[in-house]
Amino acid sequence: MKILIVGSGGREHAIAWKTAQSPKADKIYCAPGNAGIAEYAQCVNIGAMEFDKLADFAAAHEIDLTVIGMDDPLVGGIVDVFEARGLKVFGPKQNAAVLEGSKAFSKDLMKKYNIPTAAYENFDDAEEALKYLETAKFPIVLKADGLALGKGVLICQNLEEAREGVKSIMEDKKFGSAGNRMVVEEFMTGREVSVLTFVDGKTIKTMTSAQDHKRAGDGDTGLNTGGMGTFSPSPFYTDEVDEFCKKYVYQATVDAMAAEGRPFKGIIFFGLMLTPDGPKVLEYNARFGDPEAQVVLPRMKNDIIDVFEACVDGTLDKIDLEFEDNAAVCVVLASDGYPVSYEKGFVIKGLENFKDKDGYYVFHAGSKQTEKGIVTNGGRVLGVTAKGKDLKEARANAYEAVNWIDFENKYYRHDIGKAIDEA
């Protein structure tokens, strides 16, 4: 088979790496790709939002399956463009990707179908939101309705912070048009867990659990980022939690989308909060998490092409998802200054240290091949992942591997997976 992967981050690198292991994969392309992905795929200079060019490429190169990694093209309707041309594509159509594309839509869906989530109100007028906040209980959470690179969530401790938040989201448009509408949500306490699932419109199969670290600084301080590291599995995601979520959250969401005339095919990422009142949904994403994919896919035993095809063909009930009985930890190496401002173009040294090292991986998020060699080309540069027999060993291995890599202004958190020590 000829496979095309759309995207350029660590998530797409993990997908390309996993796809390359399939005996079915004859030739892999990635648009636009990055320097790390180039090891497994031929990178194609077409942007992820250039739908017609991508579809033309897929048709001209007789691509058998296109896999959409990123949220923007999914929410923008790339799957509809491909399907209209008779091209086989993995991912939700635009009317289903709204599950991630609009937080207001997803909150209303959960309310309508009794899927457990935080109490909330939606606003498209800043004055109305401010009026509501006068009587709100703090802390409280403000969320930009649309896509904001995983950064459009503000936790406000008091009314003054909330007023600032409304101004930055709805008036100053800090997150662009994503802030035209806003969700104001009760603040939930508990452990956060991420569960990725495959869906074929009616059947849902869960992958192993993971936990992300969103904040830029150690001890969960600093600004929200796209993710500074992750570990899998989460020791807090018990069999009891799994049983509850399968019944009241996962299948309920798939059934709700089908009932709304928006059957979902692809990946639903469930961001959960394990509250004192039981698991509740924090958010939905319509694709693999980044960096969650970097710890989940190395533990997956299945041929990923089989699973992609089953989702597209509606035969997921015939797939038995299997994961290794071990653990994985990913530490993101970023450019110092991320997520605000940072320099690019520094040579990355030590990538060769990962060659033929079983259980150690380096996934490129922001890198570029130049005459000088591979250089930094983003805020999040690399995801260093290692496996171990348990989380403590995986964590020790990942931090050992972090030292194999060097580049100027290298920055990373030192406490990824530290919650493991408390479990």
Brief write-up:
With 423 residues, the protein is of the alpha+beta class. The chain is built from 13 helices and 22 strands. Strands 10, 11, 14, 15, 16, 17, 18, 21 and 22 form a 9-stranded antiparallel sheet that branches. Strands 3-2-1-4-5 form a 5-stranded parallel sheet, sandwiched between helices. Strands 6-9-7-8 form a 4-stranded antiparallel sheet, sandwiched between helices.
Descriptive account of the structure:
This protein has 423 residues and is α+β, with helices and mostly antiparallel strands. The chain folds into 4 domains: 2-93, Rossmann fold (3-Layer(aba) Sandwich), CATH 3.40.50; 125-180, 2-Layer Sandwich (Dna Ligase, domain 1), CATH 3.30.1490; 191-318, 2-Layer Sandwich (D-amino Acid Aminotransferase, Chain A, domain 1), CATH 3.30.470; 327-422, Glycinamide Ribonucleotide Synthetase, Chain A, domain 4 (Alpha-Beta Complex), CATH 3.90.600.10. The chain is built from 13 helices and 22 strands. The protein has helices at residues 10-20, 51-60, 71-76, 78-84, 94-101, 103-112, 126-133, 159-171, 239-259, 293-296, 304-313, 391-402, 419-422, and strands at residues 2-7, 27-32, 42-43, 65-68, 89-90, 120-123, 140-144, 153-156, 182-186, 191-200, 204-212, 215-217, 221-224, 229-232, 265-275, 278-285, 327-335, 360-364, 367-370, 373-376, 380-388, 410-411. Strands 10, 11, 14, 15, 16, 17, 18, 21 and 22 form a 9-stranded antiparallel beta sheet that branches. Strands 3-2-1-4-5 form a 5-stranded parallel beta sheet, with helices on both faces. It has a 4-stranded antiparallel beta sheet with strand order 6-9-7-8, sandwiched between helices. Helix 7 runs antiparallel to helix 8 (159-171). It is globular and about 60 Å long. It starts with a strand and ends with a helix. The model has no long low-confidence stretch (mean pLDDT 96).
